[in-house]
Design goal:
The protein is α+β, with helices and mostly antiparallel strands. Helix content is 31%, strand content 22%. It has helices at residues 45-64, 86-90, 114-127, 129-135, 156-159, and strands at residues 9-12, 19-23, 26-30, 72-82, 101-110. A hairpin with a 2-residue loop joins strand 2 (19-23) and strand 3. Helix 1 packs across helix 3.
């Protein structure tokens, strides 16, 4: 199968720090809580990253459980991540911008033996693209900045 390219666009919304993300016509709103200068209209980007990791884990499990010999009746993931805001708000020396640690707890409802569920958990971790992006260095290639012309304020003559 050839390489697939996924695309997304994020755009600043007019209120506070709110941002709208879009991919394939699906939209999500991201924001920050008021204590970090936002208006609390959506998850923060790092919360969305936790959700993406958990979602990827659940999708991989659901797609491959049967092939792994597991009767998976239900699955959910609880995630926690520790982040020191001094890193990104103040650029504090020695403080990482992102999570220092992410804790992930898989919950599986199944009648399959525990060793099969442990093997499935290892399989999930080995196949989850989001986990791979978090665990391994993914190169980010910044393209040249596209400068859009600012919309001039209408003059009195233009607005009449």
């Amino acid at each position: 199968m050839p390489t697939m390219t996924f695309k997304a666009t994020t755009r600043k919304l007019p209120t506070g720090l709110a941002v709208e993300g879009e991919a394939r016509g699906f939209k999500v709103i991201m924001d920050e809580p008021p204590k970090l200068g936002g208006s609390d209209t959506g998850m923060t980007p790092v919360e969305l990253m936790l959700v993406a990791l958990g979602g990827c884990q659940v999708i991989v499990a659901s797609a491959f459980a049967s092939a792994q010999g597991v009767d998976l009746q239900d699955i959910w993931v609880e995630l926690e991540g520790d982040l020191d805001p001094m890193g990104f708000t103040q650029g504090a020396p020695g403080v990482r911008m992102g999570f220092q640690e992410i804790r992930l707890t898989l919950h599986m409802k199944s009648d399959s033996p525990p060793e099969k569920l442990e093997a499935l958990a290892e399989f999930i971790a080995s196949r989850c693209p989001v986990e791979d992006n978090l665990v391994n260095h993914t190169r980010i290639v910044a393209q040249p900045i596209v400068i859009e012309p600012a919309t001039p304020e209408p003059t009195v003559a233009e607005s009449v």
